Amino acid sequence: MIRRPRLLVTAAVGATAALLLTACGGSGNGGSKGNDKIAGADTGSETSASPSASASAAAERPKIELPSDLSYTFDWPKTGDKDKDAVLADSEQFVKAVDMAIAEQDPLHKAYRFYSEGTAAAGSQEFIQEFVDYKDRITGAKRYYNAKVKINADGTAGFVYCEDQNKAYNKSLKTGKTEVTPNSKDNYVLYNSRLRVNKQGIWITEKLTSQRGSSACQA
Predict the structure, then answer these.
(1) How far apart are CA 122 and CA 96, in angstroms?
(2) Can you tell me the distance from the alpha carbon of 24 to that of 39, in angstroms, rounded to the nearest whole number?
(3) pLDDT tens for residues 156-204?
(4) Please, are residues 70 and 139 in contact by the beta-carbon 8 Å criterion?
(5) Cα–Cα distances in Å, from 28 out to 40, 76, 93?
(6) Which among 122, 67, 121, 73 is positioned nearest to 99, based on CA atoms?
(7) Sequence-ordered list of residues with C-beta below 8 angstroms from that of 60, at least 6 positions apart, any chain
(8) 137 bridge partner residues
(9) Which of 11, 23, 49, 186 is the most buried (most CB within 10 A)?
(10) CA distances from 132 to 79, 101, 108, 109, 110 (A)
């Protein structure tokens, strides 16, 4: 019997290097409580000489089409830095692209592969395949918040953010029924990614790890 997939801990794969970013304190949402720290996504130091994303406007981006019963809130205020804001925008598209692949039951969907490579893409494929095997997709509402971006000297970016899954659920494509689950601290997920900008000016997620039930996302 196939184990029903645990709702979204997207592509929780790939070891990241040990750069500590203050836990989920960015974007005007306040710092975290206690001694929680977040392992960032790269070892580079912050620099103003970050890569240009000017080519991204000309890139042939895949169209993201999602079920009408799935909605998102991205509480990721713009930083005023064009590279950091591009990281936020392209990461949002990656999140949605994975969910579209799940909805369309396609583990090799071109949309999420447009926004990811390496272990992040491989982990996404495995994750999507779980939903395909069980013939499930995601419904409800998901919220993303407490984003913190760092542009590194080597041209990569570290990105840490939180997700609230309390109003998102698994929906069976066989029966049409939604598995409504109670609110839980396990529905708060901390994500940690490393990205790089490609020749098209798209910030590609290369590595992604996650921590379910993170206290840093419940502050």
Answers:
(1) 17
(2) 11
(3) 999 999 999 999 999 999 999 999 999 999 999 999 999 999 999 999 9
(4) yes
(5) 19, 9, 22
(6) 67
(7) none
(8) 171
(9) 11
(10) 37, 9, 11, 12, 16
